[in-house]
Write a structure and sequence with these properties.
Distance between the termini: 41 Å
Order of helices and strands: EEEEEEEEEEE
Radius of gyration: 13 Å
Helix content: under 10%
Shape: globular
Structural class: mainly beta
Number of strands: 11
Number of helices: 0
């Protein structure tokens, strides 16, 4: 059974940075792509970033491109989401998603002065 756990959320001021982590067990981590989504209150989840199994291919929506960076450490079964120059509109619950439509419980990111 695939188990997904996110961590690293918190409260930051606008312009600051935060790094989220996503650890996945129960699968061959080095063979799976992983993506991040976020969800605003009352809205559907939206795509934030994706990384392929090798870490060589990544993609982002325009809303975060240039500010967010996804990476992975296959030796730790972990994917990271480095978020820089955070804005109040980045405030959301962030979810990690992977094989078998597996989701974590989410980690809250709040950007406020």
């Amino acid at each position: 059974q695939v188990h997904v756990v996110e961590s690293g959320g918190g409260w930051v001021h606008p312009g600051e940075s935060l790094t989220l982590s996503c650890t996945i067990t129960g699968t061959i981590f080095s063979k799976i792509a992983v993506d991040w989504y976020r969800q605003f209150p009352g809205k559907e989840r939206e795509f934030v970033a994706i990384i392929d199994s090798t870490g060589g291919v990544t993609d982002y929506p325009d809303s975060v491109r240039g500010r967010f960076a996804i990476s992975r450490d296959n030796s730790k079964n972990t994917v990271y989401l480095q978020m820089n120059n955070l804005k109040p509109e980045d405030t959301a619950m962030y979810y990690c998603h992977s094989v078998g439509n597996s989701w974590g419980q989410g980690t809250q990111v709040t950007v406020s002065s």
